Amino acid sequence: MQLTPPATRESTSRSELVGKMLAFFKERGYESGERLPSERALAERFGVGRNALREALSTLSALRVIESRPNSGIYLRRMSTDSSFETIVLLTEMGSEPSMKEVKETLEVRWALEMRAVQLACERRTEGDLDSLASVIDATQAVLSNKGNISVQDTAFHMALARCTHNEVLVRLLNSFYRISESRRFALFADPERGEISAVQHAKLYEAVKKRDVKKATALMETHFARAVEAWNEILGEDPHAEAERVGKTR
């Protein structure tokens, strides 16, 4: 069975090669602690020179995906708490699909962050911030009127809401979480009804933030995210009601 096709020699950038290697490791079913093919075998497999391969291996080592053992070889590292959040984001950008577990766990953390974000947004938003939110809402309606997918606009709304906090750390964190789930977000909004419901909720959140109504905005975000959890678990193939209840209890 043909898996990842061999690369054309010397035509692959470091990030592309890293992404292809990650896909290869996953497709071949290598497990944590398992020895990987030699440098020579990997160079031949991906059609690259030894220098290019070593650069990619150096990146994977820095990301704590692999480790080189003297006089032994290259091994796949244990990927759990040993991997930083930044590593997960970087691996995603290099072509490694995040696991369902990673998506679910980032969703739990994002729920907590967005609840606080909407509260700070009510307190700190400016007229310019409101204009940005309104612009995204208008763009969302334009896409929906053409029966389009609002995955991009949904992310844009939540990031505009995050920027209302004027907390750069919070903005960067939420941006990273959205990047992790980006590859699956189009499927999330493939159902037009789901997009319509989300758009209505966004409009209500906008009004609450505009009025600086922290209590209402918090309640709206709670409802919005509970629906999001259900939707995500339909995509990821779990019982949405059980997961929504579990995530709610962790907050």
Automatic annotation (TrEMBL):
Q: Which CDD domains match?
A: WHTH_GntR (cd07377)
Its keywords, alphabetically, are:
DNA-binding, Transcription, Transcription regulation
Q: Does the keyword Zinc apply?
A: no
What molecular functions are annotated in GO for this chain?
Answer: DNA binding; DNA-binding transcription factor activity
Signal peptide start-end: none
Specify the HTH gntR-type domain's residue ranges.
Answer: 11-79
Pfam families named among the record's database cross-references? FCD (PF07729), GntR (PF00392)
InterPro entries in alphabetical order? GntR_C, Tscrpt_reg_HTH_GntR
What the entry lists under PANTHER family is as follows: TRANSCRIPTIONAL REGULATOR, GNTR FAMILY (PTHR43537), UXU OPERON TRANSCRIPTIONAL REGULATOR (PTHR43537:SF5)
| Protein name from the UniProt record | FadR family transcriptional regulator
